C-alpha cells in the first residue's frame, strides 16, 4: 500500500518530466520550477526530504558549473555575462559537447543549488537563484516582484540577452529541473520497488557510453 505522501512524490516527478522535455514551452519550464520547489526547496518540508526520511538514501546530483573566477584570466578580464543554459545538465543535447572542456561535478543537493550557472556584470548567479526567480517571480509557484538582489540581477540578465528565442536563463531552469529529476531517481525507484510499482525507463547515468 503506497502512502499519500509517496504517491504525491511520484506524481510530482511524472508531471515534472512532462514539463522539461525537448518540446517544452516557456510556460512548461516556468511551471517546472514550482514542481522543483516543492521537491527540494521547502527545507525539511520538501517532498524529497519527507519521503527519504525513513529510507535515508544518499542522493547524488550530477551537473556542470561555470569555472571559478581566475581559471581563465583573459576571459575573466573581458567577460560581462555568461550562462550555461542547457549545459548545466551534462546529458542535455546542447550541453553535452561542454563535457570535452568542462568538468562534470557531482554532489549533494546543497552543493548543486550553490553551483554557479551564470555570471552577469561580475556577479555570480547560482542554480538556487535561478530556481527561486522562476518560482517566485515568473510564476512557477506564484508571480511576484523581483525584490532580492539576485532576482533583480536575473531580471536584468533576461532583458539584455536572448538565447534561442527565449530570455537568458529560461533554458537554465529546464536544465536544473532535469538535474534534480535525475538526482532523485534512486529514491523514486526505491519507492516503486517497495510498493510493487513498475519502474519508469532509466535516465542517462554517468557510466553510460
Provide the fold topology.
Elements (H helix, E strand, L loop, with lengths): L3 H16 L6 H15 L6 H6 L8 E4 L8 H6 L2 E3 L20 E4 L1 H5 L2 E5 L2 E4 H10 L12 H12 L1 E2 L2 E2 L2 H14 L1 H11 L14
Helix pairs in contact: 1-2, 1-8, 2-6, 2-8, 6-8
Structure description:
With 209 residues, this protein is α+β, with helices and mostly antiparallel strands. It has one domain. The protein has a 3-stranded antiparallel β-sheet. The protein starts with a helix and ends in a 14-residue tail after the last helix. The relative contact order is 0.18.
Helix proportion: 40-55%
Mean pLDDT: 80
How many helices?
9
State the assembly state of the protein chains.
single chain
Secondary structural class = alpha+beta
Computed CA radius of gyration, to the nearest angstrom: 17 Å
Number of domains: 1
> In one word, what is the shape?
globular
Number of E-state strands: 7
Major pleated sheet: 3 strands, antiparallel
Taking pLDDT < 50 over at least 5 consecutive residues as the criterion, the unreliable ranges are 72-79, 94-101
Strand content: 5-15%
Q: What is the rounded distance between the termini? A: 37 Å
SSE succession: HHHEHEEHEEHHEEHH
Q: Write out the strand line-up for the largest beta sheet, numbering strands in chain order.
A: 2-4-5
Key words describing this protein structure:
alpha+beta; 7 strands; globular; two-stranded antiparallel ribbon; three-stranded antiparallel beta sheet; 9 helices; 209 residues
